[in-house]
Amino acid sequence: MKLAIACDHGGFEMKEALVKHLTAGGYEVTDFGIENPAQGVDYPDYAAKVCQAVTAKEVASGILICGTGIGMSMAANKFKGIRAAVVGDVFSAQATKEHNNANVICLGQRVLGEGLAEMIVDTWLTAEFQGGRHQNRIDKISQLEVNL
Ligand code: RB5
To answer: Most exposed of 8, 26, 39, 131 (fewest Cβ within 10 Å)?
Structure first.
């Protein structure tokens, strides 16, 4: 499975750890940066790189990391077709795939340890969307985009 990942300066160490973890797990990971954590950047610029790769279907899913995950999720959810979720626990990681079919997950390096972040991402990537009534609900999210 192909994935895209990016972070701002608040998420660099977790991004590096996840790239290693996911690559070792057999995923093909496109890393959109950052490469230099000493340089402050604006998280919407990096959310855009990952979301464009997801909406262009270059990758199946995207991972975004900032200090809290919140700014990345706010930016990501401005992209048509992106369903981005900030996740801080394993239950929500599973539910946001099964119910929301989240195609982008957002994590906070200042909130989570690396072990939990890896478990959250693994859970989200291996969970399956349940469809049915949940498809109807995400169709309504898509309709909200049309009405903007
Ligand atoms: C950067 O200092 C910080 O604001 C950012 O990483 C993120 O937490 C924003 O939501």
So the answer is: 26
Distance 71 CA to ligand 1 centre (A): 6
Instruction: Give residue 141 CA to ligand 1 midpoint distance, Å.
Output: 26
51 is catalytic: no
Q: What is the pLDDT of residue 89?
A: 98
The residue written with tokens 């077709």 in the block is 81
Residue 99 annotated among the catalytic residues of the structure: yes
69 in contact with ligand 1, CB cutoff 6 A: no
Identity (one letter) of the amino acid at 105?
Answer: I
pLDDT tens, 102-113? 999 999 999 999
Across residues 69-74, what is the average pLDDT?
98
Q: How confident is the model at residue 3 (pLDDT cuts 50, 70, 90)?
A: very high
- Alpha helices, H only, 25-132: 43-55, 70-76, 90-98, 114-126
CA of 104 to the centre of ligand 1 (A): 17
5 closest CA partner among 75, 86, 61 = 61
Q: What is the pLDDT of residue 79?
A: 97
